[in-house]
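G., the chain you wanted modeled:
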Amino acid sequence: MFTSLRSRLWLSYAFVIAVALSVVIVVLLLFLVRNPVLYRETTRRLRVTQSQLTESGSILDNPEAIRRIAEANETRVLIFDLTRNLIFDSGSDKPKLAFPRKNALGRTSQFVTDADGGLWLQSTLRLPNGNALVVAAPRPSVRFLNIFADELLIPIFQGGLIAFLLSLILAFLLSRWVADPLQKVVLAARNYPADAKPVPAHGPREVQDLTSAFNSMIRRVDDSQRSQRDFVANVSHELKTPLTSIQGFAQALLDNTADTPEARKQAAQIIYDEAGRMHRTALDLLDLARLETGVADLDRSAVDVSALLRGVAEKFSLQAQKANVNLQVNVPNDLPALLGDGDRLAQVFINLVDNALKFSPANGYVALSAKEAGAWIEFEVSDSGIGVESEALPRLFDRFYQVDPSRAREGGRGAGLGLAIAREIVHTHGGKIGIRSSVGRGTTFTIRLPLTKK
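Predicted structure as tokens:
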């Protein structure tokens, strides 16, 4: 019956409320037993007797007058001297009463016991002559059940019933406040992915945190699935063109459509080139997958930043001369060393410089620079090329994404994996990569890598 979270919460709240009301009832009953109405009435008579005896000091010298006052108030009057010896007792025919003792708190006890073990209520007053006036009365005999039935049963039952019903309603509302958002999360999880709407965050802070975490997880799963779909579509698209070319020219060789040595050589060359393109794409995909999953092997060592950038520039010097592009390197000689994989970092800058040369016009420039910035070394690869539109910047590091390749000055069409690989290499080294670009004014890639720890 009580298997759901809501019912268990409601039952728990109801149990706590019942326990609280029971504690209140027990406390009231204990108070009633220790201080009932009859106790208060007896204490009042003791105070009245004391007041009548002390209003006129002469009465204390008249034993008969003392007895009359004691009998009228149904009390017993005792007088003790300074040494606590009894010098008067209006109830001399009753069991002897001792002088009242002090309790653990140093105060005179409210009760005193007679010689037969009977318990008396008493009130003690010190007289001007030093004697002690004690007024006592037998402790009232109070029946517990009668007190409860006569004085508290009905009001406690009425008040407790009303409080319990109101508390049950409150407990039900509280249980719904906690359980309903959780049930919505469960329902959303069961209906996913048919209904992938985010769950509104309600209820206690912890439940809201859980709901927010669930919504975040759903978004990440959706992004991952979308990325996988895009990945499959992009891979299919990238492989479709070279496979079509390979298949077509292979068919031409088989059916002797390419019937001249030049045609057969051209077909073989295209097949070779397209196969090489597919091979490079496969290697890039494998490389990217290893970097993204953190299983790529990095040969970390001290890297000379100046030598790294100058080596990259030297690799592209002939290409830059043919394109009539000024390739510049601006690196201070006193830059500290980096801890990283030199070959992987060179791969990053080779990719960036290659792209910059492809999209830079004649008489333009490509510049590599580096400088120390606190605990980082900041690199820049800038060009005077055609730039990138602002709408394309957020996707520039996505796999297979390419800015319109027809705008490239030369250099052919790649698979669109270079920048994605460069980003993963930088991230694997604990760095950051960013881009600034303006159409017609060029592009600047900024890379920040942490310095070698000393």
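Residues 37-138 form a domain with the Beta-Lactamase fold (CATH 3.30.450.20).

Shout if anything looks off.
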